[in-house]
Design brief:
The protein is α+β, with helices and mostly antiparallel strands. Helices cover 31% and strands 27% of the residues. The protein is elongated.
Length: 114
Protein backbone atom coordinates (compact mmCIF):
# COMPACT_ATOMS: atom_id res chain seq x y z
CA UNK A 1 0.00 0.00 0.00
CA UNK A 2 1.43 3.36 -0.99
CA UNK A 3 0.59 6.84 0.23
CA UNK A 4 -0.85 9.31 -2.27
CA UNK A 5 -0.63 13.10 -2.23
CA UNK A 6 -3.78 13.62 -0.12
CA UNK A 7 -2.65 11.04 2.38
CA UNK A 8 0.80 12.66 2.54
CA UNK A 9 -0.77 16.05 3.28
CA UNK A 10 -3.02 14.53 5.93
CA UNK A 11 -0.09 12.68 7.48
CA UNK A 12 1.94 15.89 7.45
CA UNK A 13 -0.86 17.76 9.23
CA UNK A 14 -1.14 15.04 11.86
CA UNK A 15 2.63 15.10 12.37
CA UNK A 16 2.56 18.89 12.83
CA UNK A 17 -0.25 18.57 15.40
CA UNK A 18 1.76 15.93 17.30
CA UNK A 19 4.80 18.23 17.20
CA UNK A 20 2.76 21.12 18.63
CA UNK A 21 1.34 18.90 21.39
CA UNK A 22 4.71 17.40 22.32
CA UNK A 23 6.78 20.62 22.20
CA UNK A 24 4.26 23.36 23.05
CA UNK A 25 6.11 24.59 26.14
CA UNK A 26 9.42 24.71 24.25
CA UNK A 27 7.79 26.67 21.39
CA UNK A 28 5.99 29.02 23.78
CA UNK A 29 9.17 29.73 25.74
CA UNK A 30 11.29 30.44 22.66
CA UNK A 31 8.68 32.71 21.04
CA UNK A 32 8.11 34.49 24.37
CA UNK A 33 11.88 35.09 24.64
CA UNK A 34 11.67 36.81 21.23
CA UNK A 35 8.95 39.11 22.63
CA UNK A 36 5.75 37.51 21.33
CA UNK A 37 2.72 36.69 23.49
CA UNK A 38 1.82 33.01 23.13
CA UNK A 39 -1.26 31.77 24.99
CA UNK A 40 -2.36 28.87 22.81
CA UNK A 41 -1.34 26.88 19.74
CA UNK A 42 -3.44 29.26 17.62
CA UNK A 43 -0.98 32.10 18.33
CA UNK A 44 1.69 30.66 16.03
CA UNK A 45 1.91 28.66 12.83
CA UNK A 46 4.07 27.96 9.80
CA UNK A 47 4.12 30.20 6.74
CA UNK A 48 1.79 27.85 4.86
CA UNK A 49 -0.41 27.51 7.95
CA UNK A 50 -0.95 31.28 8.10
CA UNK A 51 -1.72 31.36 4.36
CA UNK A 52 -4.35 28.65 4.86
CA UNK A 53 -5.89 30.76 7.66
CA UNK A 54 -6.19 33.82 5.40
CA UNK A 55 -3.20 35.68 6.86
CA UNK A 56 0.23 36.46 5.51
CA UNK A 57 3.59 36.98 7.14
CA UNK A 58 4.68 40.62 7.15
CA UNK A 59 7.59 41.56 4.93
CA UNK A 60 10.96 41.21 6.65
CA UNK A 61 9.72 39.06 9.53
CA UNK A 62 12.00 36.20 10.54
CA UNK A 63 10.57 32.91 11.71
CA UNK A 64 11.79 30.80 14.59
CA UNK A 65 13.14 27.42 13.46
CA UNK A 66 12.44 24.68 15.99
CA UNK A 67 13.42 21.02 15.79
CA UNK A 68 11.19 18.49 17.50
CA UNK A 69 12.42 16.87 20.69
CA UNK A 70 11.01 13.50 19.59
CA UNK A 71 11.54 11.38 16.51
CA UNK A 72 8.51 10.58 14.37
CA UNK A 73 7.81 7.80 11.89
CA UNK A 74 7.77 9.12 8.33
CA UNK A 75 7.34 7.41 4.97
CA UNK A 76 10.49 7.23 2.87
CA UNK A 77 10.25 8.77 -0.62
CA UNK A 78 12.77 8.88 -3.45
CA UNK A 79 12.05 11.34 -6.27
CA UNK A 80 8.44 11.69 -5.00
CA UNK A 81 7.88 7.94 -5.21
CA UNK A 82 7.47 5.76 -2.14
CA UNK A 83 10.35 3.40 -1.41
CA UNK A 84 9.16 -0.19 -1.15
CA UNK A 85 10.81 -3.00 0.80
CA UNK A 86 11.95 -5.64 -1.71
CA UNK A 87 11.29 -8.56 0.67
CA UNK A 88 7.85 -7.63 1.99
CA UNK A 89 6.54 -5.28 -0.70
CA UNK A 90 5.52 -2.75 1.95
CA UNK A 91 6.40 0.91 2.03
CA UNK A 92 9.53 1.79 4.02
CA UNK A 93 9.25 4.13 7.02
CA UNK A 94 12.01 5.71 9.10
CA UNK A 95 12.30 7.67 12.36
CA UNK A 96 13.40 11.28 12.11
CA UNK A 97 13.10 14.57 13.98
CA UNK A 98 11.07 17.30 12.25
CA UNK A 99 12.02 20.95 11.86
CA UNK A 100 9.45 23.71 11.44
CA UNK A 101 9.82 27.45 10.99
CA UNK A 102 7.13 29.15 13.05
CA UNK A 103 5.75 32.69 13.00
CA UNK A 104 3.79 34.36 15.81
CA UNK A 105 0.41 35.98 15.22
CA UNK A 106 1.99 39.46 15.67
CA UNK A 107 4.23 38.74 12.69
CA UNK A 108 1.24 38.36 10.37
CA UNK A 109 -1.53 40.50 8.94
CA UNK A 110 -4.84 39.77 7.29
CA UNK A 111 -4.30 38.94 3.64
CA UNK A 112 -6.42 41.45 1.72
CA UNK A 113 -5.64 39.76 -1.62
CA UNK A 114 -7.27 36.54 -0.56
Amino acid sequence: MTIGIRERQSASTKLYEKFITDDFSKIRDQLTNKGYMINSAGDFSTYVGWRNKGRRVKRGEKGLTITSSKRYSQPHFYFNRPVMDEKTGRQVFYMKTKTYTLFALEQTEIDTLF
